[in-house]
Amino acid sequence: MRLEPRTLLTGLLLALAMMPATAFQTLAPEERRLLAPLAGAWPDLDAETQQRLRANARHWLSLSSEQQQAMLQRMRDWDALPPAERARRRGAYAAWEALSLTERERVRAAAARIAALTPDQGRALRDAFESLPADQRQEWWLGPDIGADFAKLRPLFAYTPESERAGLLALLRALSPAARADLALLARRLPANERERLRRELLAAAPGAREALIRDRLAQ
User: Fold this and answer.
1) Which end of the chain, N or C, is less surrounded by CB atoms within 10 Å?
2) Distance (Å, rounded) from C-alpha 75 to C-alpha 68?
3) 3-class SS of residue 123
4) At 27, phi and psi to the nearest 5?
5) Residue 214 and residue 183 in contact, taking contact as beta carbons nearer than 8 Å
């Protein structure tokens, strides 16, 4: 029987309307079992979230029983941590994610060198780090490129809106060491209103023009 175009259109619209509600049932049985608590909310999740959840489920299913138990133990250990410690670790993870691949390799190399130290040497190094003021320890989370010299650049961040901090850090990482050194000189030399103006100009400038802008301002 040949269906009328209006009937076909109605059927298509009905199928499209039903797809989100029935999509959960199209998952593999193992995925449905793991994601069952989300079945009711599944139609309201965006495609990216659904894909991420499915990837997590597939990863879990790929693990051996021992690996699954080890992961569960890590989750229990995490839940047992005080909220302040969980926040600290999230901060460290976010800092790691912000590093470039080159910086990560440098951090891994430094970690390997530290691991090769004697216990007494390693303990002395950790004690020396822990003795630093909290804000200085925090600055090292910025990575090897700017963490060591961030104290000189800190004036540039005074009164910086939180919405601009990530962009400003990315800008600093993209500069050459010489340009960062010049910018540190400017940050100390300029009054607060001029630092704010320089910060806005740098953020608005094209990446390739920023180092010239710093040199020009330094020469004034």
Assistant:
1) N
2) 11
3) helix
4) -70, 160
5) yes
Question: Which residues, other chains included, contact 78 with Cβ-Cβ below 8 Å and sequence gap of 6+?
Answer: 86
Largest CA-CA distance found in the chain, in angstroms, rounded: 86
Closest to 196 in 3D by CA, of 145, 163, 165, 157: 157
- What Rg, from alpha-carbon coordinates, does the chain have? 26
Which pTM was predicted?
Answer: 0.57
pLDDT for 110 equals 86
Q: Which two tokens stand for residue 87?
A: 């926040």
Token digits for 136?
């200085």
For 138, the token pair is: 């925090």
- The SS3 call for residue 220 is coil
Tokens standing for residue 18: 């039903």
Q: What percent of the chain has pLDDT over 90?
A: 5
